[in-house]
Design goal:
This protein is of the alpha/beta class and about 220 residues long. The chain has seven helices and seven strands, in the order E-E-H-E-H-E-H-E-H-H-H-E-H-E.
């Protein structure tokens, strides 16, 4: 795992956590070019999605969060003004926020996809399911140009194609029986963003009780 910092002269810290199957550059590089004029940006190159560390595989959401948490505690006394997580990065964000050593003012979850995997009774079933999902993902990433035509959006340019099967398998396996930590939303000024056409939008509306968990929800029309 590596950390890339920009705009260090600025006071307000902004931690960027990219999603699965992409990189910090693919997700945030254009944004950083603008935002570094105002914010001290800390962009995380997560394990398994970093061309600088091709032999490092992701282990789990929990382990990614643990590493980033220790970095924040060691280098910033656990204080960060804003965290912006994208997709898988939102899960990592909530895990970080739940550590009592961490203090976050604003938390933004972009494209929060709440898909809870089954909790298999036997490990062999869990491993088989994780292996199946890995093969499907691996195939899809290498044929994403075909899906561009179906989705009507350039997804191919957003995919990190050098991800290993081991990283994909580890993440899928670790998601069973992972359960989302919505209580983290109550620990900061929290926002969730979705495109109007995202499947994750309906999941959020159906599963997160806004009377119990406090966040502002912004839906981007036509996205």
């Amino acid at each position: 795992m590596k950390y890339f910092e920009f705009g260090k002269e600025n006071k307000t810290t902004l931690l960027l956590l990219h999603g699965v199957d992409t990189t910090w550059q693919m997700s945030f590089e254009k944004f950083i070019d603008v935002a570094k004029k105002k914010y001290h940006i800390i962009a995380v190159a997560e394990d398994g999605f970093n061309a600088d560390e091709p032999d490092v595989d992701a282990v789990s959401v929990i382990e990614e969060a643990r590493k980033i948490t220790e970095y924040l505690v060691e280098n910033y006394d656990g204080k960060v003004d804003i965290i912006l997580g994208e997709s898988l990065g939102v899960m990592i964000m909530t895990e970080i926020m739940l550590d009592p050593r961490i203090k976050v003012h604003t938390a933004i979850g972009d494209g929060y996809t709440i898909l809870e995997y089954p909790n298999f009774k036997f490990d062999i079933s869990k491993r088989f399911f994780a292996h199946f999902l890995t093969e499907v993902e691996f195939f899809a990433f290498r044929h994403m140009g075909f899906f561009n035509k179906i989705l009507g959006e350039d997804i191919d340019s957003m995919i990190y194609k050098n991800v290993s099967k081991k990283t994909l398998y580890n993440l899928e396996y670790s998601m069973m029986p992972y359960r989302y930590k919505f209580e983290a939303l109550n620990l900061a000024d929290s926002y969730l963003w979705h495109g109007e056409k995202e499947p994750g939008l309906k999941q959020v509306l159906r599963k997160i009780d806004k009377s119990k968990y406090h966040f502002a929800h912004k839906v981007f029309k036509g996205k």
